[in-house]
C-alpha cells in the first residue's frame, strides 16, 4: 500500500475510534418527572414499612420485658406465699405496720392523727388465714390497733366450674372501681369515710362473668360486727352507721348490692374497666334517734379504671343518700371513735399513678408514685340554717415495695378529713370551719 493509501486507512480508523468514543460517553436519556415521583413514593413506602417494622419490634421487646418483669413479681409473691406456714389446706400470714406522723395542727384527740411535733406509733398488727381445699375457699383476718381489735374478714366460699364464686360471711361489699375505691394511697379517698369503699359487711356475695363482663350480686344482713375497744359500737374497721355509747342512732340492715364492670381493650397495653355500682338498704332506728322513724340508705356510682401501659388513671363519681327524718347528719363509727357525716352528697374522686419496676435497685422491687383528689360535696344545713361546707382531700406520695416490705410516703392536705387536722367529730359533717391543714405520713408495713 502506497503512502496515500496508508494515510486514508489510518484516517478511517481514527474516525471510527472517535465515533465510538463519542457513542460510549453519551449520557443515557433522562427519566421523566412522573417516573422520579413514583420512585420517591416507592422509597417513602419502603421507609414507612421499615419504621413500622422497627416500631413493632420495639413494641414486642417492650411487651416481652414487661411480661417477664410481671412474671418475676408474681413468682416472688408465689415464693412468699409458699414460704408461709401451713396447716393442711390453711395458709397463715400477717402484717405489722407503724406510722410516722407529722401534722401542721394541734392534736385534738382524733384517730391515728399525731400532732404538730411529729410522732411514731403502731398502726396495726394482723393475722390472716387463707383456706383452699378443692373448690372450697375461705379467708379470715383479725386485727389489733392501739386499744381496740376486731375481725376484719371471715368468710367461706366455693369456686364453681364456670369460674364463678360465692362467699358467705364477713366479706368486702362490691361497690366502686376497686377494693379501695380509686385510691392507691394509705389515706384512701373520701368515699371510704362515708362507708362506700373497703367496706366489710355480713352477708352473701356471688361473683361471676358473662363473657368478658364481670358482675357481682350481694345481700348483707348487717354491717361489720363490733369488736373490743373503748367505745360500745365503734371498735371496727369500716365506717358504719352505728349507735353512740348512749344507744342512740341507726343500724344497717338488709342491704342489696350490684356491680358491673366491662373491660375494654383499646390497643396493646391500653385498657379501660368501665363500670357502675348500686346499693340500697334499711336504716333501723335505735334509741329513738331524730324523729324515731327508720330510714333508707342508697348509693350509686359510675367508675372507670384506665390503664395506659404503666400509667393508671382511675375515676369515680358517687352519689349517696342516707334518707332519715329530722337531721342532715348521721352518726358513724370506725377506728373506735364516732363522727357525724352529711346524710347526702356527691363524691368525685380521681387517682393518677405510675407503676415502675426497678430491677437495677437491689433494695427495691417497684415503686408506685401517685397523686389523688376527692371531695364530699354535701347537701345539708345546720339547725341554724348554715349550709354544710365541702370536705376536700389531696394526697401526693409513693408506695415502695421490696420482698415483704410495703412502705407509703405521702402528704395529705385537707379542709375536711378527721385524720388531717381540724375538729375530729365534725369534718365529714357540717365542716363549718373548713380550715386547710396538712399531714406528712410514712407507713412502714412488713407482710409475712
Description:
- With 448 residues, this protein is α+β, with helices and mostly antiparallel strands.
- It folds into two domains: 34-83; 92-447, Porin.
- Helix content is 16%, strand content 50%.
- The chain has helices at 3-24, 33-83, and strands at 86-87, 90-103, 119-133, 136-145, 148-159, 165-172, 179-182, 200-210, 213-222, 240-241, 249-267, 270-286, 295-308, 311-323, 329-334, 337-342, 344-354, 356-357, 366-379, 391-402, 405-414, 437-447.
- The strands form two sheets. A 16-stranded antiparallel β-barrel has the order 2-3-4-5-6-8-9-11-12-13-14-17-19-20-21-22. Strands 10-15-16 form a three-stranded antiparallel beta sheet, with no helix packed on it.
- The longest helix is centred in the first third of the chain and has 51 residues, at 33-83.
- It starts with a helix and ends with a strand.
- Mean pLDDT is 86; it is low at 2-31.
Pick out its properties.
single chain, 448 residues, alpha+beta, Porin, 2 domains, 16-stranded antiparallel beta barrel, 3-stranded antiparallel beta sheet, 2 helices, 16% helix, disordered N terminus
Query: What portion of residues is helical?
Result: 10-25%
Q: What is the number of independent domains? A: 2
Task: Please describe the biggest sheet, giving its number of strands, its sense, and whether it closes into a barrel.
Answer: 16 strands, antiparallel, barrel
Largest beta sheet: what is the strand line-up? 2-3-4-5-6-8-9-11-12-13-14-17-19-20-21-22
- The CATH superfamily name of the largest domain is Porin
Number of helical elements:
2
Which percent range describes the beta-strand content?
Answer: over 45%
Radius of gyration: 34 Å
Structural class: alpha+beta
H/E element sequence: HHEEEEEEEEEEEEEEEEEEEEEE
Q: Unreliable segments (pLDDT under 50, ≥5 consecutive)?
A: 2-31
Give the averaged pLDDT, no decimals. 86
CATH class of the largest domain: Mainly Beta
Shape: globular
CATH architecture of the largest domain: Beta Barrel
Number of strands: 22
Give the N-terminus to C-terminus distance in angstroms. Answer: 116 Å
**CATH topology name of the largest domain:** Porin
Amino acid at each position: 500500500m502506497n503512502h496515500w493509501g496508508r494515510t486514508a486507512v489510518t484516517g478511517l480508523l481514527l474516525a471510527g475510534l472517535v465515533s465510538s468514543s463519542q457513542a460510549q460517553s453519551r449520557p443515557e436519556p433522562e427519566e421523566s418527572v412522573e417516573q422520579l415521583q413514583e420512585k420517591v413514593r416507592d422509597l417513602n413506602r419502603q421507609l414507612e414499612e421499615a419504621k413500622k417494622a422497627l416500631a413493632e419490634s420495639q413494641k414486642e421487646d417492650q411487651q416481652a420485658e414487661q411480661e417477664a418483669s410481671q412474671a418475676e413479681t408474681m413468682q416472688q409473691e408465689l415464693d412468699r406465699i409458699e414460704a408461709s406456714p401451713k396447716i393442711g389446706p390453711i395458709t397463715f400470714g400477717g402484717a405489722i405496720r407503724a406510722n410516722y406522723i407529722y401534722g401542721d395542727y394541734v392534736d385534738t384527740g382524733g384517730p391515728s392523727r399525731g400532732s404538730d411535733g411529729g410522732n411514731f406509733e403502731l398502726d396495726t398488727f394482723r393475722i390472716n388465714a387463707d383456706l383452699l381445699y378443692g373448690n372450697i375457699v375461705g379467708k379470715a383476718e383479725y386485727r389489733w390497733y392501739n386499744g381496740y381489735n376486731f375481725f376484719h374478714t371471715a368468710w367461706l366460699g366455693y369456686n364453681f366450674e364456670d369460674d364463678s364464686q360465692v362467699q358467705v360471711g364477713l366479706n368486702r361489699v362490691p361497690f366502686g372501681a376497686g377494693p379501695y375505691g380509686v385510691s392507691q394511697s394509705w389515706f384512701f379517698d373520701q368515699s371510704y369515710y362515708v362507708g362506700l369503699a373497703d367496706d366489710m359487711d355480713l352477708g352473701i356475695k356471688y361473683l361471676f362473668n358473662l363473657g368478658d363482663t364481670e358482675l357481682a350480686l350481694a345481700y348483707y344482713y348487717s354491717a361489720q360486727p363490733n369488736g373490743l375497744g373503748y367505745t360500745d359500737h365503734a371498735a371496727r374497721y369500716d365506717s358504719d352507721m352505728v349507735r353512740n355509747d348512749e344507744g342512740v342512732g341507726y343500724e344497717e340492715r338488709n342491704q342489696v348490692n350490684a356491680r358491673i364492670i366491662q373491660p375494654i381493650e383499646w390497643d396493646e397495653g391500653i385498657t379501660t374497666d368501665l363500670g357502675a355500682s348500686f346499693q340500697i338498704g334499711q336504716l333501723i332506728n335505735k334509741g329513738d334517734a331524730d324523729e324515731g322513724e327508720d330510714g333508707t340508705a342508697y348509693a350509686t356510682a359510675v367508675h372507670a379504671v384506665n390503664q395506659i401501659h404503666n400509667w393508671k388513671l382511675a375515676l369515680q363519681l358517687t352519689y349517696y343518700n342516707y334518707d332519715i327524718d329530722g337531721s342532715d347528719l348521721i352518726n358513724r363509727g370506725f377506728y373506735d371513735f364516732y363522727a357525724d357525716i352529711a346524710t347526702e352528697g356527691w363524691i368525685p374522686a380521681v387517682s393518677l399513678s405510675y407503676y415502675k419496676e426497678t430491677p437495677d435497685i437491689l433494695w427495691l422491687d417497684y415503686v408506685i408514685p401517685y397523686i389523688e383528689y376527692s371531695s364530699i360535696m354535701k347537701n345539708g344545713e345546720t339547725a341554724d340554717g348554715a349550709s354544710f361546707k365541702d370536705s376536700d382531700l389531696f394526697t401526693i406520695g409513693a408506695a415502695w415495695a421490696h420482698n415483704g416490705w410495703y412502705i407509703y410516703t405521702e402528704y395529705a392536705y385537707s379542709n375536711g378529713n378527721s385524720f388531717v387536722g381540724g375538729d375530729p367529730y365534725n369534718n365529714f359533717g357540717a365542716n363549718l370551719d373548713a380550715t386547710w391543714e396538712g399531714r406528712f405520713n410514712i407507713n412502714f408495713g412488713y407482710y409475712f
